[in-house]
Amino acid sequence: MTESDAFQQLNQGYNAVFRPNQLSLGIVVPIETYTHSPVPTMDRHLERAKLVEDLGFAALWIRDVPFNVPSFGDAGQPFDPFVYLGMLATVTNRVALCTGSIILPLRHPAHVAKAAATADVLSGGRLILGVASGDRPDEYPALNVSFSERDVRFRESFAYIRQMSQDWPRFDNAFGAPRVPMDMLPKPTGGKIPMLVTGSSRQTQDWIATHSDGWMTYPRNTAMQANVINEFRRRVADAGQPPKPIMQPLHIDLVADDDARPQPIHLGMRLGINVLRAYLKSIEAIGVNHVGINLRFNQADTEATLERLATEILPAFD
Fold first, then answer.
1. Where along the chain do its domains lie?
2. Does the pLDDT at position 3 exceed 60?
3. Smallest Cα–Cα separation from 136: which of 82, 199, 71?
4. pTM exceeds cut of 0.90
5. With b meaning 16 or more CB within 10 Å and e meaning fewer, what string describes 167-205?
6. What is the CATH number of domain 3-317?
7. Cβ count within 10 A of residue 140
8. Which residues contact 247 (CB under 8 A, 6 or more apart)?
9. For the chain, where are the alpha helices, taking DSSP H only?
C-alpha cells in the first residue's frame, strides 16, 4: 500500500473497518432469523452483540426504521438507533458501531449531530454514521415532511451535521442558522463524524464522491460491481479527494453443504461456506472494503452460524 492508497484516519471504528485493498466483515442487527414476520424478537440481542465482538467481526450495523410499515415488510430492529447505540457501547469494547442508515430528511440535523457525537465519544470513537434520504414514502406524511423534497433536505442536513463538528460554527442552512456565539458539545473524537452515503440518496455520484467519507452500495454481479466501483473511484480522484472506502450488505442463508452453489435470495444468496468465501474474495479483489452480513433469512442456528463464519471465513481476511 502506498501513501496515496490510504484512507483518511477519522476515528477508531472507521480506521479499523476500512483498510485499502482488504475486506472486513460486520454483522447486521437484528442478529436472528425472522422470515415469517416483519418484526424480530430481539432475542438475546445483547449477548449476540457481545459474541460478534468476541468472535472478531469488525462491525455491528443497526438500521433506522421509524415506523413499522406493512407494505415495506421489515421493521428492522425496533429500537431507536441512537439510544440503541448507547446501549451497545456499554456492552462492547472494540467492535465498530455503525448505522445503515439514518434517514436524514426525517430528523433535525442538530439532533443527529448531537446524538452521533455523543455515541462516538461514549464508545471511544467507534461510530460510523451511514446516512440516507429514505425510500419509504408512507413515513413522510406522519412527520409532515415532503417526500419529493428529500434530496434537498438530505444535502442541507448533511452540511449542517458537518458544520456542527467545528468549534463555534456560524452558518446559514435551511434547518437553521446559528448566528450568536453558541457551540454544540461533545465534539467527535476524530474531529468529524465519519459519514457514509447509502445508495444514491437522490444525489449525483459527483456529490457523493466529494462530500462523503465512503459509499454504501448494493450487491450486484461481480463484473457490474467492479464497473460501479471503478467509476466511483474515478469520480473521487477527479474531485481531488483522498481514496474512500466502499461497503455493501449481503443477506446469507448458510447451508450445511460446504460446496452448495449460490441461489438468489433478497439482496443475497443461499450457499455453502466455501462458495461464500470465494465470493467474498472475488469482491475484495474488485475493491469492496467491507460487507455487512445479514442473517434475517438464515435458517441455521444463529450462534452456530456466527461461529462458522468466524472460524471458516474471518481468517481469510486478516
1. 3-317
2. no
3. 71
4. yes
5. eeeeeeeeeeebeeeeebeebbbbebbbbbbbeebbbee
6. 3.20.20.30
7. 18
8. 18, 196, 214, 215, 216, 217, 288, 289, 290, 291, 292
9. 12-17, 45-55, 81-91, 109-122, 139-142, 150-164, 205-211, 222-238, 273-285, 302-312
